């Protein structure tokens, strides 16, 4: 009987020690020190002291009060041995000793049959109670707080599921937004260019006197609404009016165009002012079409730039943005391809309709129905992401803070531009692109109307144009990195102006000197006008694809070698002066030419000469900037290499010292064995500094129990 009691008591003693050690491991912040000389050795076995926990050299002995949960799990001696006769046979030290000695293995059915350890109330009424098995967990951090080992997050195709729940909805949203934008962009040109009493001459006036003021007014209204509404309410407040307008335009405004357009008043004004004012008067004549034009332009700047990218930056982390934002650019070109095919399909519906049917009205209703449907899908995705992703506390959040850009006035911006040749050359690139693309685009659209006067034919050609632009841009984005690596910055920066120069010369030559080429072009089945339309289309396609794949990356790379002050001030100056000047410069030049020479056709020779001068200045600025950028870039690379070498040297020395220290300190098993051999006292080698150069850190570690 006595022998059986001793066996059961030994098992009870080991179970208590195991539970007690686990509780210490999980609740170190509640236990400042563990009493007894042997306790330090036990804790050294359980918790690694390298970098995570530093124990004092002379621990103070304090009483340990176990948690109330342990009291419920550990029955008292009176409960285990209710009979005084039984308690008389059990030594007192065995009942109260909580030493950390290891239990010798005792064979028996209890340990072999059930891995879940059980502690017993010994005596005549002994009960077997199951308790969970406690296993070793992660180390406790230095601040004493509990640490839970992170489980590996589930992945699909190598990407975490939590990331896909954000990226996939954002990708679908971006596709729908760009799909709509391509339809709207092609439709707006068809409306204002092919309308009766209007032409491509309306575009420069429309951009300057209608589009720009409405964009400024909208942003002021958006700023005020952002201070009042929540982000989710602001999103719906902005996008729903766009969706409602495009649906109402196709089904209400366009069918009522003859009733709501002041055609008679516009005819009187044009007769009084002269044919030079055809563009400004056309804004009044087809005001609903002009409103559609402005709303389509705002969809690109507001819904894409403000709403989508603001929302994407809100819910994605920096690492996710670096990995997936470039894919959004490729997805945008895929949307361009599919939307171009959609425009082509609806534009060709007129061929299957009978005479007297307004084919363009039917095509417009079909395309705007798709715009409304995709707009509602965008809203649904936004609501779902806000409900299931943004409000999910388990998903990572973006901790990016908005960078404060310096606000330079016009005078300060001009001073910055005039003070540096490098910044002046960079500004010339930005202004030259904006002016050149506007000069060519408006002239090309005027010839496009002459070749395709019907809205359906014009729209069908624009569908093919959008598809070709998407394919060319997608291909150039894949080749852009190869060109930059193989040929360098200078060649990549000169590709865009070279393409504009060659195609511009061909385009304006066909317009100005097309008659002598008529027999040659006739043998190819084309007229000079159709050839000019095709060459102008190629110019627009390749210039835009080169801009997205080469011009924009080269422009951003040019800021890198500048010092911090000039980098910040130069970029701000270009944003304040050069971007608006490039966008509105071409429109202002065209307005001056139209009002001076009477029409856009009469201004074509002069516009061609201006384009030639601007592109040559662009090439000169790119060459000059390359001569400055390349040496600075080489210096930056040399500095980076030197910094990397300096970083590697200390890290190599530290690795050697760590290896030497590890040889002196021994392995974990050696430290454990030394602890057990020295009755649990901490060895000097375990508490010694890891490197000779960290004496201050070591002294601070020794002065406090926990680092």
UniProtKB/TrEMBL annotation:
Residues 643-707 are annotated as: Disordered. Keywords: ATP-binding, Chloroplast, Membrane, Nucleotide-binding, Plastid, Transmembrane, Transmembrane helix, Transport. The chain crosses the membrane at residues 163-182, 202-222, 234-256, 268-284, 291-312, 324-343, 364-385, 426-444, 465-484, 490-513, 520-542, 606-625. Residues 643-661 have a biased composition (Basic and acidic residues). Signal peptide: none annotated. Coiled coil: none annotated. It is found in: Membrane; Plastid, Chloroplast membrane. Pfam families: TLC. It is a multi-pass membrane protein. GO terms for cellular component: chloroplast membrane. One of its GO terms (molecular function) is ATP:ADP antiporter activity. Residues 667-683, 690-707 have a biased composition (Low complexity). InterPro entries: ADP_ATP_car_bac_type. PANTHER family: ADP,ATP CARRIER PROTEIN 1, CHLOROPLASTIC (PTHR31187:SF13), PTHR31187. Belongs to the ADP/ATP translocase tlc family. NCBIfam families: AAA (TIGR00769). This is ADP,ATP carrier protein. It comes from Musa troglodytarum (fe'i banana). The lineage of its organism: Eukaryota, Viridiplantae, Streptophyta, Embryophyta, Tracheophyta.
